[in-house]
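Re: the request from the purification team.
They wanted to know what the chain is likely to look like in 3D before they choose a buffer screen. I agreed to run a prediction and write the result into the notebook, where they can find it.
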Amino acid sequence: MTVQLNQAIGKVPPNGNPVVANRYGADPYALVFKDRVYLYMTHDALEYDGSGAIIENTYSSINKIAVISSCDLINWTDHGEIRVAGPDGAAKWATQSWAPAAVHKVIEGKDKFFLYFANNASGIGVLTSDSPEGPWVDPIGEALILRSTPGVEDVTWLFDPAVLVDDDGKSYIYFGGGVPEGQYAEPGTARVMKLGEDMTSVVGTAEVIPAPFMFEDAGIHKREGIYYYTYCSNFYDGERPEGSPPAGEIAYMTSNKPMGPWTYHKTILKNPGHFFGVSGNNHHAIFQFHDEWYIAYHAQTLSKAQGIANGYRSTHLGRIFHNEDGSIREVEADYKGVQQIKPLCPYQHVQAVTMGWSAGVKTAFEAAAGERVVTDIDSGDWIGLAGVDFGSKGAVAFCATVISLEDGGAIELHLDDPAGQLIGELPVPAANGPVKQRELKTEVKGVEGTRDLYLVFIGNTGTPLFQLVSWQFMQ
């Protein structure tokens, strides 16, 4: 069947940025656990006016945190959203969930995970889980940090947490932001505070981090005994003293202790507008993964490509390089992104919501499958996987778990491009009754070595064809 292929928007092969194209995600924070990196992101979602037109992002209705993960930094698995705040959320006392921070700690021999979030700019909460994917619960039933917390009374914006579990097991939370009236050069609104051993309490008094031209976006990482505090500078448009951070850039300070004293150095990441032609706030997280250092940051690239920038942000990845003296080189943000660090194995169960690139599709939790699946599949839509290692023997068959809908359709398997070499086709029958999950299989031929793989969906136009749960090749 000849089919009109839909075009990738935002994340276009072979680029790695933005990291996903099927959802927005702002204020990224990275958690590395075992062989995966999890990105927790403010769940930007389109807002509309009374006539149905998309409006500027107000952030006022954001009460979820989006989660994706990867073991190779190009193909990302969509874990959906954590319901954090509001009547249906884990933290029913909160109204919003912005700018998360996630961390892992072994407590009494067990892996524990902690998700810190901002309840707008009025406080910081914490959720706990036994897995980086949840489920998450509220362990204290109230905010962890409020204006009644010692040392934070004068913090303009009580938000944007970052957390460090140090080598000795002690933990610290960094947060704050905002500019008191006229105090652009020395806002004095950045804070660091000790966390209790349980990670759900704070100890002592929060201390000031004297970050020049501070605005928001706390970041923390430790390398070779040096603590790096990173933040976004404010947008003061007047004259700045020489050596001060320019507006809306990521700057860094260092210390040999987790709570300071701190020494200011310079900025390392210009505002997104410098690279992508659409400005906005700058937000980041720096993390180590398999001995290399990376920076996650956001930009309005996906929404710009959709023609609706309006404050809807997407996460990007870049490399961070430290010099021998401990200083950090400036980051060049781009669409290319970072290198894939390992191939994808097609001979094991692959969740369909694992994608390198995509066109047209969305994801959603499907009760019939008991997991998140690829949805909104129309004819001409596709998903792509980068660097799939079929080995020297190659594959002989492809099987997929699908949920048939009214019309059904087919999955074409192409290499290196959505219109590239065809190695097989899997018919998906119509539902013919109640919606149910089914296992399907087809032969494939002509594939070996490491190739990009594209699953192209075909069928009648104008109606959703089916839902894709998972897939796997066989040798």
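For the purification team: The mean pLDDT is 96.
Please add any questions underneath this entry.
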